[in-house]
Amino acid sequence: MQLRGINYDTGFGGAVGDRSRVAFDPAVVRREMAIIAANLHCDAVRISGDDPERLTLAAHAALDAGLRVWFAPFPMDLTPPQLQPYFADCARRAEEIRARDPETVLVLGCEMSLFCTGFVPGAYLMERLKNAMDPAAWAGFTPEWDFTEMLRDVVGIARRHFGGKVTYASGDWEDIDWSDFDFASVDLYRSADNAAGFAQHVRNHGEHGKPLVVTEFGCCTYRGAADAGGTGWLIVDLESDPRVLTGDHVHDEAGQAAYFTELMDVFEAEGVHGAFWFTFAGYECPADPEPRRDLDLASYGVVKVLKGQQGTAYPDMTWEPKEVFRAIAARYGAAAGSPR
Asked: Which residue range forms the structural domain that includes residue 129?
């Protein structure tokens, strides 16, 4: 596998709902990028978020740490006409990063049939998530925009400003024409629904002939999260303030670490070009001694975010590494020939 990576969130959020990351301290970003490179032994990082300024700052910090950058703007609730100037701006910024490292890759959005507006019934993300699998919601609905045409337009705009390789972080359900892209990229989570044929599922995504990159894979930190895959975070009651979990769940770091190892075995066996674990930290999902308030259970992060206290393994950080952190460090380190 040529890319051993992790996702790094700089913050995103739609017109309705919470931000995935509120605080953004450049010193913390630089320190975390250094840890991702030196301690996790990643060689690449997919930097995502909706704020181009944050993306640019984090990308420079990643380059300083010796990481290859996948510059990944993450728009939410935008329409195709709004996406065009947004991606033009991001492409110019990515070209600035590519001037420092020609291997920089521009990732033109993520799962936009759901995260953006006009393709699935619903004005906002949570509406679209609810409606996507509800036949009644589709009755009389005609998509306002053609998804394939939107992607083709976005690629054309990006290539006017960016001279490097481009891709798109597709949802597993999206049917993408990869002819305009340099990599085929998919957010690929194993769950109870696809576990039996998961290896074949990965193989199917590589049939187009382009290098296949898994831009996201991961699971949360509770028993049974592996069966939920990409929907494991839905154990959070989004109507409560402050947030709480919807039921009683058992903390399970070992299960999260096992998920990483099992999927990496499949990806390597199937010749996947690269894979990015989702994610480094769930910044707005802090741990709590009260089980119903322990949002770390709903986090895909390799670190446990602490409430207002310093960690012990990394005393300058307000988080502690989980078992999956150590599993990633060991596997990526062995592949890179680094000491564990």
From this structure: 3-336
